[in-house]
Amino acid sequence: MNQTYGIVAVSAAVVMTLVIGSTGLRISRTTSDFYVASRTVPPYLNAMAVSGEYLSAASFLGIAGLVAAQGVDMLWFPAGYAAGYLVLLVFVAAPLRRSGAYTLPDFAESRLESRAARRVASVLVVGIGWLYLIPQLQGAGLTLGLVTSAPRWLGGALVAVVVTLAVAAGGMRSITFVQAFQYCLKLTALLVPAIFLAVAWHGDPRPGAALDEPPTFREHTQVTVEGTLHIRIQEPLRAVADGAVDGKDYDDGRLALDPGVHEISAGTTLRFPPKAQVPERETDGGRHAGASSWAAPLSGGRDDHPLYTTYGLICATFLGTMGLPHVLVRFYTNPDGRAARRTTVIVLAMVGGFYLLPPLYGVLGRIYAPDLLLTGNTDAAVLVLPERLVGGVGGNLLGALIAAGACAAFLSTASGLAMSVAGVLSQDVLPSLGVRHFRLATLLAIAVPAVVSVAVSGLPVANAVGLAFAVAASSFCPLLMLGIWWRGLTAPGAIAGLLTGGGSALTAVALTIAGPLRDGWAHTLLAWPAVWSVPLGFLTMILVSLATRDRIPDGTDAAMARLHLPERPAGPGAFTTR
Q1: CA angle (403, 178, 190) in 5-degree steps
Q2: Where are the beta strands (DSSP E) in 149-236?
Q3: Alpha carbon of 331 to those of 120, 125, 171: distances in Å?
Q4: pLDDT single digits (tens) 379-430
Q5: What is the pTM assigned to this prediction?
């Protein structure tokens, strides 16, 4: 990608974010403005804002990268991300808005009349928010690194600064307009280049090359290895090497490798001839990084237990959406429960339409950017395709548009996450001094994940987001489902379920990121915990609540009525919720 075009596009996206966000300084005047935009956001605007913050770097970059590397099994990611809103629509959206809460901890306290439940919910909101913020900052580093050749940490730091300024300026009211704008930019940034890429693909004499197994280089290709890696080849490979391979130094020398596993040292440059097979990366546990059959579902490859992995992904994405604090906080901005339902229906259409595009980029990335499979940098497939297929000025312009969309992706999601985490920190951690400490909380909300993202830079963006979904599904899904639909839920039951379900999932995520286990059932259970941690959270809440029936809050009947009775238009004697 031409750096000048890319820098201009990214700079424009950042400037527009700051300009729109700065309007909050003029229109955000009360605490309610900062937290929930005074509950006056109409459904269409709110739906655009929800879609804007939900379509993160994992959606914009990560899905295409996973599809390119691992095949059709990864289509469960976009399916699950979209279907989560159907579950949210049916079970949660309207009752949650009627609860009158500002945040998930507010809901826990008002429904269960328990400060302890609020504190536990607060810790989990902050943990999920930080876990979700890490891949957004990684995506920022990847995008800005490709555009400007700057170090990856610098991209994450820049986004952290921009998000802090935008959120602190006007809170929820200004972020609503920012995220609505960013949704339009992201959709345009994927849709317009996709049209040109599809036309170029149609003119290719071998349009089905993505199904080749293993994939091959279509032309002379040079690949520079950033870190030492091990590759597996299926047949003799000829290349030109400049660096160290299997401990032997080469200076633009001819390289002949026999089938088997070989070590490529960091900094080595390899030049492959056309039609040469792309070597398969191997992880630390000795498993292949790519799928054994890209187009065949459940064919194995990187995961030892692909069927379990699929169910883990489905459980996390289908049930995790209702537990994402930055998504739920937007429903508190609707005027009433009916508007919340309408918002969710519109979001379902917007998100579903968007998710038709990343898989296309994944297929094209496998055909025209197979070198990314070798380097493991498949998250960059969306960014490099315009240059590979279109080229020239047109390719540079399309690439710049995609770079601007990617910038909007991590800015919008990071803004929503910072908003939700800052809201909890300012209410439950810092002394309550209104807007002043909300702004201080915003700085804390973004600083911690910015530091952590530098230390865990090797985790694929979409996989990292999947882990956050697993924790959300294991903690807040049981709390919301039982809290809204079962009057027998007690504070001890909710606390026990949050700690057991959410805590076990969070522990599994931490162990997965730390990486003490690389293969076998132990690794699979930890990497995809939702299959067992979600039922564990539900079961714990139910059993402990049944054992503590005497602790059912006195105001349960009134709370359930507020959650489920529809609002009537405001007027003399009309019943309204907060």
Answers
A1: 30
A2: 221-224, 229-233
A3: 22, 16, 15
A4: 889 999 999 889 889 999 999 999 999 888 888 888 888 888 887 887 777 7
A5: 0.85
